[in-house]
Protein 1
Amino acid sequence: MLAQQLVNGIISGATYALFALGFTLMFGVLNVVNLTYGVYFSTGALIALYATRHFGWPILLALPVAAIATGLIAVVIDGLLLTPLRRKKAPELASLMVTLGATLLLYSLMTAFIGTDIQRFPPAAIDPSAIEIGAVRITRSQMLIVGTAFAMVALLLALMRGTRLGLAIRALAENPDVARLMGVDVTLVTFFVSFVSGTLGAAAGILIGLNYNAIQPYMGEAMMLKGFAVIIIGGLGDIRGALIAGLILGLLEGLTAGYIASTLKDAVGFLLLVLTLWFRPVGLFGRAAAKRA
Amino acid sequence: MPAFLDDFLFSYQSLIYSLGINGLLALSMYVVLAIGQLSLGQAAFMGLGAYTSALLTLKVGAPFPIVLLAAMAVPALAALIIGAPTLRLSGVYLALATIGLGEVLRIAFVNSELTGGALGLSGIPEKAGYTIIFGSLALALIAFVLVSRSRIGRAMEAMREDEVAAGMLGVDLPRYRISALVVSAMLAGLAGAFNAHVSSFISPNDYGFDAAVTILSFALLGGIGSPFGPVVGVVILTLLPEVLRPLHDFRLVFNGLIIVIAVLFMPHGLLPWRIGRTGARA
């Protein structure tokens, strides 16, 4: 029982970490809270759903295509909504508000066209066979979930630490004006970061869609609550913090569902969020980020 | 009352009620935006007020004035719990924590037997009416106008324009922030109690993300230069979908679009003028 709960916890934790990673990356590098991020989660899952259902694509093809398509949507949304605000040097909360409005617009457009009914992947897309180790049961889909999540995180870390592009991204995060002076193409790097974030959000949506096999437009909204919890617990803009906080949240949810009550599972994240704000607002590893002139 | 007016009020009763209730919600958004903060918990505070009041009326049979006071006190407490830690940090934290509050309350309302689960509570007696709803709205408007003309109003405007400078000039930032959030939560809670006691039925989905964003769209359409701006926003966004029926189905799309346009192209809203100062010397 305990081992199975821990395994389930790690599986959801891996997807939370993946989801929160894109969100915290946008905040850390672009310095905006982009609330349309939850929409990317839903969009990714919906595109993958249509690809597997209508074209009969295997999930291994649908997943990368849907993630990349969503990444491109994220670039377009960033260009339309956030680039003008950046040019005007608008206050931080302006970007939060504009993406909030866009989120409502996009969700309600999606529900207007495809409704709010829960949709499911075709049975062929999900491999139900499972491996049993002692009392623990892991399905092949769940292995795909964890494998993809770890591979994407490793790829992102390698990109950030080991390439010139990663260096440019970190320079942009540190100070956009100085980065520009040092020859970084700020517009290009900004679009690239939006693309990567959109891809991460979409991948998380597809993987969670596979795990629970229940997809509908507003699924991203419920996920945002976990996203907020993870990025605040991990420290806003902190990649390592988001990874660890995501896993912690998944594990604690698994244990709550197993030993206390499954209805309380979704409240765990918010409780941790409020506790973090009260007792350690800088997050797990955070540095104090007081706002100064 | 003349007969035609009586007929009119009867036919459009629920629409007129929602004008008043949305007006209070827009003012509750205004008071936070007026100091340059963003709370997205207005719908959650409203839901807390609605459920608190409905439960007190249905299960305890408490007198209506007590019910209204409680409907303001409970959201105020929630605002303190969320606001006290976040308001020391940058504005992003308050916004994120308040959206989180809305989402977690919805989950709690759906899962709790006391609150009737996903079906909500029904059979709430109609105890609120035109007088108390529009009386409260008028009182709140007058109070905000008086505040804007005072020293407090000037401090609030200074915070909105430049927080660091306002702090340097001796504005007690933490006190203003927490007071604004608590007043905002109380107004939203009151609106929630009115909503419960005119519509006889409440459910968790009335106070979710859609409602939170819609309330923000009232304030941003009208503009937050004066307390009248948000009320103008309410009149337009509540009546327009009734007049233009095709708009009705895409109401939420439209509300979202209003926010996008307001932030990108008209940051001062439709009503840009500000309230003059008393005792201000040029």
Note: Chain B touches chain A through 50 residues (CB under 8 Å).
Protein 2
Amino acid sequence: MNNIYLKNIVRFILLVLLQVLVLNNMNLMGYMNPYVYILFILWLPADINKSLLLLLAFLTGLTIDFFGNTPGLNAAATVLMAFARPGVLNSLFKNPDFEPGEEPGIAKLGFGKFLRYAFILVLIHHTVLFFLEIFSFDEILTTLYRILISSVFSSFIIMIIVLLFGKRKH
Amino acid sequence: MRNLFSLLWKYQFFILFLILETVSLILLFNSYSYQRSLSFNTANDVTGKIFSVYGNIENYFSLKRENNQLLEENARLKNRINILPVCPDSILTDTSRNYYYIPARVLTNSVNKRNNLILINKGRADSIKKEMGVISSTGLAGIVIGVSDHYSVVMSMLHRNSRISGRVKKNGQLVNVIWNGLDYSKGEVTDIPTHFRLFKGDTIITSGNSLIFPAGITIGTIENEEQSISQDLGHASLNFSTDFNSLEYVYVIENLEKKEQENLLKKVGDE
């Protein structure tokens, strides 16, 4: 699969299906809510047009919202995450020297750096999502706890997917 | 003018971000109002079909448990039939004659969000309409808020907008039941008048005051009563009788006389 469009379309479909069919129906401890579909945004080429990045994030979020009947919720969180992505990439990696069209994947960054990159963006996404969903500061400690354990769990699943299906270092 | 465009172009990333974020938030906050969420149709046949196909596969793994649940419900209903002739004039059973029950399968359901929705496999074609009540075999479950041709979206009791009018079974006092967003097995009973006390194990049932649910459906039992915080009305914690985490089949309740009741109320209200 060298075609970058085809590759990303397949990823989009598989990640959305994984999210809405499997992960959205997972009721772990009543608190955990893994959101793994954002890996699609994490994996987009490093030099992608930034406005296109935002539009794709919006589209991805809306698709998840469409299935979950939560209009705008995932879209808002994913757009903010995509807005933060270029900055996070630049600040984490001093000299990333990505090839044109290259993904910020595990092959380029290595396990530790990719984990950091993923966890920061997952945390941003989950913070927005949970606060918008709960929409109250009454139980702020519980909300923060939910954000934290869900972020850890989402990152864990993302790392498993990346290790299983991502391109390795050659 | 040219400068304005070049400025807009320069900050297009930030401007686009603001636009997309605003659109998302408008969509989101519209869905947070119960009245507005009723006015746009949230169920749709495309996603319903996908969930339905997936659910068919998944269902094979829970057949045994479902079978047991149906057996238990059967037994419970048989026991009730035995009781019925003994007290034919009971107020609670008398009203239920005006209601028609439509069975449905749960396609998706969640308990770990602040606002949980249930997707079921019956829709307009099965004469389901918005604002019909939904119950499980053990108690109350939610209210239909969106209908497509073959699927419906149900607002679970585990939702910010869910506020059910209940009654204390032993003395008929009116209370309200809401969910505070934490534990999916526990609700909150509010607006308890101060002149009586609730005790652990007291049953809360539907009041029948709304046109949605018949009277006498179990909502849950009191877990423990909290001290009343404000001077006038107390509140207590309640164990839902419906296990939302294992919801597989539900019944949608059609109030056969809803139209007449609504018209009458409206007529009196207009006068």
Note: Chain B has two domains: 39-158+247-256, 164-244.
